[in-house]
Amino acid sequence: MNIKQLTAQLSVCAQVSPADVPDIAAAGFKSIICNRPDGEAADQPSFREVEQQAQAAGLEIRYLPVTPGRVSDEQAAQFDQLLDALPTPILAYCRSGMRSTTLWGLARADRLSTGEILKRAEACGYDLSAVVRRISQTAATPFAVADSTHRVVIVGGGAAGISVASSLLARQPGLDIAIIDPADVHYYQPGWTLVGRGVFKPAQTARVMGSLIPRGVRWIKSAVAGFEPERNAVLLDGCRVVKYEQLIVCPGLKLNWEGIEGLTDTLGRNGVTSNYRYDLAPYTWELVERFKGGNALFTQPPMPIKCAGAPQKAMYLSCDAWRRAGVLGQSHVKFFSAGNALFGVPEYVPALMEYVQAYAIDLNFGHNLTAVDGVRKIATFSVASAQGDAGKIEVPFDMIHVVPPQTAPDFVSRSPLADPAGWIDVDQETLQHKHFSNIFGLGDASNSPNAKTAAAARKQAPVVAHNVLFNLGLKRGQARYDGYGSCPLTVERGKIVLAEFKYGGKLAPSFPSWLIDGTRPSRLAWLLKERILPPLYWEGMLKGHEWMAQPEMVG
Predict the structure, then answer these.
(1) Which of 45, 161, 310, 438 could be disulfide-bonded to 49 (CB atoms 3.0-4.6 Å)?
(2) 195-254 tens-digit pLDDT
């Protein structure tokens, strides 16, 4: 935790974890202000978790969430009021400290000179020069002056973003590319299922972002606030502007933990866990190891979600561990899905049902988790009847694995790039935006009807790379994405049902059936998941090696 002092009364820092709070109190701070909305990143603790620790330490704490680059005058005024009302010294935090610093600059613009605001912010490592344009109203629009311009700008440094940058450079060395992403760490999220089973350590799924950005690509370490496609501009946190010739948008999903009442109050405690967050996956394994019987619930929200098989993977691996430990017979395992089928591609269901029966899992479809009471250990579900009426049931639990509802990030869903449901509106084959020809979307935030998995991004990246270069006049013909996705369903430790399919649920096996029959559990598929796919991800996909991922050309 790197705390930076703006004034004697106010300091700022990056994301605070619950474990940081005792040190904050020991450093003499009396109050904390959180300026980061929940659910921005997969490794982000909720405000409620920090608040609980702050209250236990006797600190005042307030929640004033601000979307990156969207600091309003009203929010600045509210921040100003908090600075005057709360006991000092105060620590404000967001993802990096930039939003908190921006709020301070706007809040104190009538008390400090512009030069003094810039000087103090710069001393803390924050550049408020773009905010000064807003303060002094020298620009009629925030897009009037660009801080930088690039031939290709990529929003998102996850699996899709880094892969497409590498694929572009493999085809066109020296191309002017910038990646915009504020994260310090890049995660191999498919590995979190195995962290939750004790197979992987969390550190095996994380690498420093800077080590993965392709050589020659500029990394703009900032959050995106919005898009102005008519001006070929992206607005960043701190009111900075980046312009482009071609834009690729792949920021991943937003996990809406707040969408389930009471969930953020109890995550990581009271037997409530989720493999969808980096810091919680180890808690899943902790719960599984110490489970001696009782009610174990596993939930799946309405589609779309990241890796639709992941909720089941956690369940099967937990059951396998309990079977090996001799406690499965004392366990009542229940699966609650908002959907109406175990898996969307019917050919894989028979193999999964064999495990459902072997583990004596109680399947409940049409059940959507709406609330969690961790203290009482009660989960509440809404249930749709055959007549369409909605009711509610309460189910007790000893442990519960929760998958939160998921959406595109706010800066996407509220932008001109979004379809009515909030997803990036692209052609499902070319992945080109339907209304803005120099914009492409891939990965989890797009509305192409494929599975939202890293395997899909691996196939999409070469398609987008080729089609961007086609737009720039550097390649001939267009490439087409066929909807390929893969979901290695971990049904027990040592066996996987390797689901691979294209648009329309058409099976798309990568291997001959005599080697790996994807419709049956396979030890070789487990070896692929545990030993082959992680290095293929780090050393292949992210470095532009398109093994078994060459795009299909049309024209």
Answers:
(1) 45
(2) 999 999 999 999 999 999 999 999 999 999 889 999 999 988 877 899 999 999 999 999
Q: How far apart are CA 44 and CA 63, in angstroms?
A: 15
Summarize pLDDT for 153-207 with one digit per residue, the tens.
999 999 999 999 999 999 999 999 999 999 999 999 999 999 999 999 999 999 9
Contact indicator for 496, 489 with CB cutoff of 8 Å: yes
Q: Tell me: do 195 and 279 sit in the same domain.
A: no
Interatomic CA distance for residues 539 and 339, integer angstroms:
36
Write out the two tokens for 103. 């709020």
Q: By residue range, what is the domain housing residue 309?
A: 257-407
Sign of CA dihedral 508, 511, 513, 516: negative
* Nearest by Cα to 16 from 40, 39, 37, 47: 47
Which residue, 296, 502, 537, is CA-closest to 400? 296
In angstroms, the CA 107 to CA 6 distance is 13
Which of the residues are catalytic? 307, 487
The total number of structural domains in the chain stands at 3
Give the model confidence (pLDDT) of 400-413 as tens digits: 999 999 999 999 99
User: Which residue stretches of 427-490 are H helix?
Assistant: 454-471
Number of helical H runs and strand E runs in the chain = 16, 28
CATH number assigned to the domain comprising residue 28:
3.90.190.10
What's the whole-model pTM score? 0.86
Domain co-membership, 403 together with 416 = no
Judge whether 36 and 94 are in contact, CB under 8 Å: yes
396 in the same domain as 299:
yes
